[in-house]
């Protein structure tokens, strides 16, 4: 069935001027944008968003990175959205990302990896609700 995933274009990719290139890969990949904004996570927001990673050694670095500049947050709609979008973005580590993926093209490192994609339908709904009010979703 048609369903939804949540994505962020992360600060590294916004800083590098790659918003347009990444949105083109997303829409060329068959995803429909049903919500989107340029926003900025405060340190408190980033801590909350990534609370699931709080025990990881890279948590502090991740929070600092994700709050250092603006991001694009969006909700995407497609058949099999979560799985297909994770295929389009590629492996977390860009050195392992397949040719043709967003991270292969634009990610700098395992931490500064250009884009986020939800890892389950449940998390997609939680992450979408973190960023968007109902009236912002079309
Ligand atoms: P993402 O999968 O979108 O969400 C968790 C993020 O944690 C991941 O992207 C990376 O940005 C970051 N991350 C994962 N592993 C590491 C690591 N070993 N070092 C630094 N950051 C990491």
3D structure, described in words:
Its EC number is 2.7.4.6. It catalyses: a 2'-deoxyribonucleoside 5'-diphosphate + ATP = a 2'-deoxyribonucleoside 5'-triphosphate + ADP; a ribonucleoside 5'-diphosphate + ATP = a ribonucleoside 5'-triphosphate + ADP. Its main location: cytoplasm. With 138 residues, this protein is an alpha+beta fold. The chain has one domain (2-132): Nucleoside diphosphate kinase-like domain (Alpha-Beta Plaits), CATH 3.30.70.141. It has 7 helices and 4 strands. The protein has helices spanning 11-15, 19-28, 43-49, 59-66, 81-89, 102-106, 121-131, and strands at 2-9, 32-39, 71-79, 115-117. It has a 4-stranded antiparallel sheet, sandwiched between helices. It starts with a strand and ends in a 7-residue tail after the last helix. Bound molecules: adenosine-3',5'-cyclic-monophosphate. Adenosine-3',5'-cyclic-monophosphate is lined by residues 53, 58, 61-62, 92, 110-111, 113, 116. The site of adenosine-3',5'-cyclic-monophosphate (CMP) has 9 residues, from helix 4.
How many domain units?
A: 1
Ligands present: adenosine-3',5'-cyclic-monophosphate
Q: How would you sum up the major sheet? A: 4 strands, antiparallel
What's the CATH architecture?
A: 2-Layer Sandwich
CATH class: Alpha Beta
Order of helices and strands: EHHEHHEHHEH
Average of per-residue pLDDT values? 97
Per DSSP, the total helix count is 7
Helix content: 25-40%
Superfamily at the CATH H level?
Answer: Nucleoside diphosphate kinase-like domain
Distance between the amino and carboxyl termini:
18 Å
Shape: globular
Protein name: Nucleoside diphosphate kinase
Subunit structure: Homotetramer.
EC number: 2.7.4.6
Cofactor: Mg(2+)
């Amino acid at each position: 069935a048609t369903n939804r995933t949540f994505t962020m274009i992360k600060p590294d990719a916004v800083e590098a001027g790659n918003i347009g290139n990444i949105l083109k890969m997303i829409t060329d990949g068959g995803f429909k944008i049903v919500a989107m904004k340029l926003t900025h996570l405060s340190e408190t927001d980033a801590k909350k968003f990534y609370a699931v990673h709080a025990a990881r050694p890279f948590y502090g670095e991740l929070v600092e990175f994700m709050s250092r500049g603006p991001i694009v947050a969006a909700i995407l709609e497609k058949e099999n959205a979560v799985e297909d979008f994770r295929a389009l973005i590629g492996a977390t580590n860009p050195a392992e990302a397949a040719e043709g993926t967003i991270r292969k093209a634009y990610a700098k490192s395992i931490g500064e990896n250009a884009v986020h994609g939800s890892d389950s339908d449940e998390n997609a709904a939680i992450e979408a609700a973190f960023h968007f009010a109902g009236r912002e979703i079309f």
